[in-house]
Every structure is written in structure tokens, then in C-alpha cells.
Amino acid sequence: MDIKDIKTHYIDYVLQNSKRPESIYLFMKNIGGEEKTFYEHYTTFYDLEAAIWSDTFKDTIEKIQQEQVYEGYTVREKILSFYFTLIENLKAVRSFATYSFKNQKDFPLDGGVLKESKQTFHDFVSQLITEGVYTGEIADRTFLTERYAGAIWWETVFIIRFWIYDSSKNFERTDAAIEKSVNLAFDLLGKNIADATFDFIKFLFSKN
């Protein structure tokens, strides 16, 4: 039994029972494995859940980057593609995702079951921020640019939470939330009236 089997059986257990197994020993025994096999990879069910979430993030990134149209997307479109694809992937295991997200012991912004996903996403979005600054989609602001990835992570947690609690048909409200939140984020990250005002003030006070 390998790590993939353990993840599959665990997701199936939560989907069927809407709770975590009573113990690692019983869980492994019921799926025909040994307890020590679990501990070779994880310490707790919580760590296993974090790995499953991280897999979903990695699979999402890999999937969108393999699409032929991806390289032609703007940075805004790449972020939109990521969010829409992430939600589609999560739909397949919605009951698991809902239980896991709602029953995490740590605040998701600081990690929680998304603790591994946070680093995966940070690496992905940091590259897009660099690209956006180069293309001019994102303004390069002293002391702020390095915080952009963290701000977009907040947006990511917001979108996942919105979807978890969304009861609209086909999750239409989530689709709208993704579009509106990403558009707002890029309106703020791009050059705006505040930047123009600051540049003008610098010009007025600069020496000839």
C-alpha cells in the first residue's frame, strides 16, 4: 500500500462518514494496511488532509499550465484560470473539502489544512507577480510588491471559504465572486490614481 492509496481511502472514509476515523490504527486496519505505514508519511490525520489539499493545488497548477492557451493569457487571466480550475477540482470531493475546511484547528490564513498549499501557491503566484510587474499589469511599489503574494493568498482563502458556504445553483455566486475579487485585486495592484498622484508629487518636489 502506497501513499496514494492511503489518501484515496481517507477521502472515501470522510465522504461516507462526514468525520475523521476514530484512530490511525483502526483506519489502517480497515483498509488492509499497517499503522506503521501511515507514520512513515504522516503524524496525524490533520497532516494527511494538508497533503491532500496541497495535491489539489499542485494538480490545478499543473493542469492550467499544460493548456496551450495558458502562455497567451495575461497574468489576470492566469489567476482567474487557477481559481476556476481549483474550484472544479474541489467539486469532485466537496464533502471532504467542506468537512476538512470547517473542522481545521488553525486559522487558514496562517496555515491550517492549507499550510502546505500556502507555500505551493506562494511559489506559483510569486512568478506571476514578477511577470505582471514586467508586463506592466502590476505596479512595482517599494515595500509593497513583496507583500502582494500574501495579499493574494488572503483572496484565495476567501474564495475557498465562499465556495464552501455557497448554496447557489451550480455555485454561480462563487463564479461571480472569483471574477469580481480578481478584477478588484488587479485594479488595486495595477497602476491607479494613487500611483499617478504620487508620481506627480515626486515630480513637483524633485530637483531639476
TrEMBL record:
**Domain of life, source organism:** Bacteria
Q: Identify the stretch annotated as signal peptide in this record.
A: none
Output the Pfam families linked to this UniProt entry.
TetR_C_23 (PF17931)
Q: Can you give the residue ranges of the Tetracyclin repressor-like C-terminal domain?
A: 78-204
What InterPro entries does the record point to? Answer: Tet_transcr_reg_TetR-rel_C_sf (IPR036271), TetR_C_23 (IPR041673)
According to UniProt, the name of this protein is Tetracyclin repressor-like C-terminal domain-containing protein
What is the species of this protein?
Thermoflexibacter ruber
